């Protein structure tokens, strides 16, 4: 695993056991991510690390580690499409989130993105969870060009809390086992059936130690 900016846009969860054309309706009624394309904000981002301005999303409670918020029309550091870490337009709408998922090998540094679903998942029901990832295009002044593996999604009844920049030691229900690198947006999807009721928190990042 190596240090890499990974941008995230338009994240969603949908009920998967009905026909395709009805997925959005079921998604809205049963298990919707708040502010799925990060458009809603309390103010325009001015500096890196201002994840607190995104409505409905947060880091995992760390006082030092958190995502960056990018939006068209923001200050130069947070404007799109050129960010300090790569050149990239939003996948959907005018906003996206950037994350340094981990540090270089054996530094055990992490950043997480977290939200509470609008409604808890239902035990025994099958869901399809989808999100979009990209590394962006490297520029002369950007820090792009590295990749990361084991990006994972963890659903839980409680909100995991990160200490500093330490890893969260939970087992995600889904992880990208291969190394992820793409200059274009890629849709990542997985199916999930909860075994318990009341899972309502979603945390995205790299879980466990570098070893």
Description:
The protein has one helix spanning 23-30; strands at 5-15, 57-58, 68-71, 82-83, 86-87, 95-100, 113-116, 127-134, 151-156, 174-176, 186-192, 201-206. By secondary structure, it is mainly β. The strands form 3 sheets. A 5-stranded antiparallel beta sheet has the order 3-6-1-8-11. A 5-stranded antiparallel beta sheet has the order 2-7-12-9-10, with no helix packed on it.
- The proportion of strand residues reads 25-35%
- Helix count, per DSSP? 1
The poorly predicted ranges are 14-31
What structural category characterises the helix and strand content? mainly beta
Distance between the termini: 10 Å
**Mean pLDDT level:** 83
Largest sheet: 5 strands, antiparallel
The rough form would be described as globular
Question: What is the number of strand segments?
Answer: 12
Q: SSE string, helix = H, strand = E?
A: EHEEEEEEEEEEE
Radius of gyration, in Å, reads: 16 Å
Helix content: under 10%
Going across the biggest sheet, name each strand in turn. 3-6-1-8-11
């Amino acid at each position: 695993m190596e240090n890499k900016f990974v941008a995230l846009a338009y994240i969603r969860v949908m009920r998967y056991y009905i026909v395709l054309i009805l997925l959005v309706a079921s998604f809205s009624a049963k298990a919707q991510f708040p502010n799925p394309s990060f458009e809603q904000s309390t103010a325009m981002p001015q500096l890196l690390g201002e994840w607190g301005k995104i409505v409905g999303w947060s880091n995992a409670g760390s006082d030092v580690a958190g995502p960056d918020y990018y939006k068209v029309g923001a200050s130069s550091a947070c404007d799109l499409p050129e960010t300090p870490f790569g050149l990239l337009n939003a996948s959907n709408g005018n906003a996206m989130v950037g994350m340094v998922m981990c540090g270089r090998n054996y530094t055990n540094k992490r950043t997480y993105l977290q939200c509470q679903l609008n409604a808890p998942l239902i035990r025994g029901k099958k869901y399809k969870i989808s999100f979009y990832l990209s590394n962006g295009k490297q520029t002369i002044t950007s820090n792009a060009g590295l990749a990361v593996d084991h990006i994972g999604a963890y659903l839980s009844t409680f909100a995991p809390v990160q200490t500093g920049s330490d890893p969260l030691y939970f087992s995600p229900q889904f992880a990208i086992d291969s190394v992820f690198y793409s200059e274009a947006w890629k849709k990542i999807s997985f199916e999930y059936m909860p075994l318990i009721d009341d899972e309502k928190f979603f945390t995205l990042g790299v879980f466990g130690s570098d070893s």
